[in-house]
Amino acid sequence: MITLRRLRRATALCVLGAALAGCGTTEAGRQAPRPAPSAPAAPSPSRTPTLAPGPGGLTPVFEHGPRTDRDKAGAPDGKLVALTFDADMTADQGPRAAAGEHFDNPRLIATLRKLKVPATVFMTGRWAEEYPDEARSIGRDPRFEIANHSYSHYAYTDDCYGLPTVSEDRMRSDLERAYTAFEKAGVANPMPYFRFPGGCYDKAALKELAATGVTAVQWDVVSGDAFATDADAVTRQVLDGVRPGSVVVMHCTRSAAPVTEEVVRAVVPELRRQGYRFVKVSELIGAANTHR
Ligand SMILES: [Zn+2]
After folding, report:
1. pLDDT on residue 42
2. Ligand 1 center to residue 87 CA distance, Å?
3. In this structure, are residues 215 and 194 in contact, taking their beta carbons and an 8 Å threshold?
4. Using the 8-state DSSP alphabet, how is residue 38 labeled?
5. By the 8 A CB rule, do 91 and 151 touch?
6. Residue 185: pLDDT above 50?
7. Where is the segment annotated Disordered (predicted)?
8. What's the confidence (pLDDT) of residue 292?
9. 226, 251 contact by CB (below 8 A)
10. How far is CA 99 from CA 37, 103, 253, in A?
């Protein structure tokens, strides 16, 4: 549970920093103002941008970044967009993986590297257990960041696309078990961000996870890549949906999202042509904090 403790401390520092001076990085290589000098010397995770807790101390929910192409001083800063990839694997899918089903997508990761696209991977703990070398490789690449998509990919609400449900008293341990799996796989510094399986959450779930210090990360653009076979249709849906500050949800799972790599190859050059700059979720959250 060392990881979680570290995350909690990092978040506490960050909330303090956010209240005082804005929290985290606003763009690559440029740090937001540090917390007040009286704050303890901070290890690097403390610079991780997070949102302050929601009303009543609930887990905050992030859906998109600032809808602007300017930084807070009004200078041109480009239009930011974050591609996110869910590395889904449900706790009981081990036998299917053993039988040869591919829940990973190394070609997609290779394409992101080749195109120099920063990205955030929301990884289930079960996926990290199945593909520890890939998890470690993604985690060590500064172009990427790994965030938490639960251990089991069971839903945190009762009715969520037919997913099995994790009971309220198991929510925290399921989330923490994913961080433990990342640690075992050798992933250093996973982000304190959590994506609910299926994107399903309610107030009870937000309350239950509050003590972990995570920021819940949703999205505003559904790529529709899950079980899609028409790459052009998915590409169009992404290009139609993206606005400045958007968070796009896609998948990093060959068997359930076979056209995603092709979609990325089409979407990336077109969005760049339109003036978009790809960033990780952390940078988008940092930008959201500085634009307040
Ligand atoms: Zn998922």
Report:
1. 34
2. 7
3. yes
4. T
5. yes
6. yes
7. 26-76
8. 65
9. yes
10. 56, 11, 16
182: CA distance to ligand 1 center in Å?
16
Q: What tokens appear for 192 in the block?
A: 């304190």
Q: Which domains does the chain have, with CATH numbers?
A: 60-290 (3.20.20.370)
Six-digit token string for 23: 């929290």
CA distances from 4 to 207, 211, 216 (A): 17, 10, 15
Taking the C-alpha atoms of residue 198 and residue 29, their distance in angstroms, rounded to an integer, is 33
The residues, ordered by sequence, that sit 6+ positions from 272 with a Cβ below 8 Å of its Cβ are 278
The pTM (predicted TM-score) of the whole model is: 0.85
153 C-alpha vs ligand 1 centroid, how far in Å?
6
Average pLDDT along the chain: 87
The token duo for 4 is 């979680």
Assigned token pair, 133: 């070398």
178 with 166: CB under 8 angstroms? no
- 60 C-alpha to center of ligand 1: Å? 19
Residue 276 CA to ligand 1 centre (angstroms): 26
Q: Which amino acid type is present at position 248?
A: V
Is residue 76 over pLDDT 70?
A: yes
